[in-house]
Design goal:
2 domains; 271 residues; sodium:proton antiporter activity; 9 helices; 0% strand
Length: 271
Amino acid sequence: EMQHAGIPITLMDFGLGVISFLSVAFGGLMIGILVGFLSALITKCTSDVRVVEPLAVFGMAYLSYITAELFHWSGIISLIGCGLIQAHYSFKNISEKSYITVKYFIKMSSATSDVIIFLFLGIALIKGPYAWETRFVLWTLIFCLLFRFTGVYVLTWILNRRRVRKVNLQEQFIMAYGGLRGAVGFCLVNMISEDIIKQKQMFVTTTLAVVTFTIFIQGGTIKALVNLLNIDKRKEDTKRLLSEEVNTSIMENIMAGIEIISGKHGQQWFW
């Protein structure tokens, strides 16, 4: 089916594709970071009108998305960049009530979106039509796993060179193995125009196969692997005494200063 998919792809096409990917990704990220800093400045001026703080946080996040989309850059990556800056700066400026409002609204929206997305995926799995290509499906799964593991191991190797607390091999394996692909890939493949790419159904079928494999096979075995590899699990948060909060805050500031002086990067490096 791929023999008549279109014109032959040249080396220049690959180069243009890489440049396009980098411009879309980094362009969206820069938009998100800039809007995130703007959000931090806005929330510094809301001490007298706390009620608008959640609206300011969500409004600026949406602004980063639509601005990136306006330039045909990645709105999703823009949201990630904006969220990173807001988490470190904007959330420090808003009141506790506003923070709780934002936190639980995001959790509620996330749960609702998950339900809708997987309901849509379930309908698509049953409805069809399918264009199954065994070799294409297998190679797609192999490359998804290969690039996922390569990306995780390379990035953690770079990160571990400057970290005090290293990310060990067991944790790296879990991060790589736990890469579940679903909503974004399925939405993107459904945006393909069948008038331009005649093999759209083959791509849709392959995407559904990857989603099914990662959710049921990888997702179903991840808990057993975490227990088998003795991965440290997050302990339940308990309320601490005021003295413990003060001591923790002092130690974090001291450690941040030591890390700056020593040139080592730990969990306080961002500050």
